[in-house]
Specification:
The complex is a heterodimer of chains A (107) and B (120). By secondary structure, chain A is mainly beta. Chain A has no helices and eleven strands. In chain A, the strands form two sheets. In chain A, strands 2, 4, 5, 6, 9, 10 and 11 form a seven-stranded mixed beta sheet that branches. Chain A has a four-stranded antiparallel beta sheet with strand order 1-3-8-7, with no helix packed on it. With 120 residues, chain B is mainly beta. Chain B is built from no helices and eleven strands. In chain B, strands 2, 4, 5, 6, 9, 10 and 11 form a seven-stranded mixed beta sheet that branches. Chain B has a four-stranded antiparallel beta sheet with strand order 1-3-8-7, with no helix packed on it. Chain B is globular. The chains are: A mainly beta (107), B mainly beta (120).
Chain lengths: 107, 120
């Protein structure tokens, strides 16, 4: 099973600041990595897939990078609605796995 | 607009069974792989099961293998998750998720979820 480790666990930032979230895989997942956003009480939403492709309707301030074992989700300038929990997920091999999540909170 | 509506959750005793349903609309249901993902209270996401194409191509997390069965009814645009031998650790919100046309294993969108509570 591929283990995904996200860091940091919590990121405290102010609106307008840049957020950088990390996801590290226990073995190579090539570019088969996605990022999801989850707001309290809501279902997750797909932001990025194939490491760097934005899903439909996702603002350009969200970007993904990386390949192999190290990946980054960047939010260039935080909007109020971006304060949420973010999960990474791999589809390189079964079982599909998620990271433990990074909470982006208002400082 | 694609909509996914889960139902069938509730309170069940340990060892009991439950069948979850996910009614899909706004899509050609038979064309997409479908999955179940769960989230225990206050915890992260755990992939549970996926059905890629036909009922013959199914995948399960080790934690549910042999106890849960995923299936679909394309004529009624519905995905199912039959759960047996339920345990306390199965308590979670269960989400169904459609997959991207370009990939069978990216989840977009998700339903709103249905809560399963396993407790005596």
């Amino acid at each position: 099973e591929i283990v995904l480790t996200q860091s940091p666990g919590t990121l405290s930032l102010s609106p307008g600041e840049r957020a950088t979230l990390s996801c590290r895989a226990s073995q190579s997942v090539s570019s088969y990595l996605a990022w999801y956003q989850q707001n309290p009480g809501q279902a997750p939403r797909l932001l990025i897939y194939d490491a760097s492709k934005r899903a439909t309707g996702i603002p350009a301030r969200f970007s993904g990078s990386g390949s192999g074992t190290d990946f980054t989700l960047t939010i260039s300038s935080l909007e109020p609605e971006d304060f949420a929990v973010y999960f990474c997920q791999q589809r390189r091999s079964w079982p599909l796995t998620f990271g433990g999540g990074t909470k982006v909170e208002i400082k | 607009e694609v909509q996914l509506l889960e139902s069938g959750g509730g309170l069940v005793q340990p060892g009991g069974s439950l069948r979850l349903s996910c009614a899909a609309s706004g899509l050609t249901f038979r064309s997409f792989a479908m999955h179940w993902v769960r989230q225990a209270p206050g915890k992260g996401l755990e992939w549970v099961s996926g059905l890629i194409g036909s009922d013959a191509n199914t995948h399960y997390a080790d934690s549910v293998k042999g106890r849960f069965t995923i299936s679909r009814d394309n004529s009624n645009n519905t995905l199912y998750l039959q759960m047996h031998s339920l345990r306390a650790e199965d308590t979670a919100v269960y989400y169904c998720a459609k997959t991207l046309a370009a990939s069978p294993n990216w989840f977009d969108p998700w339903g709103q979820g249905t809560l399963v509570t396993v407790s005596s």
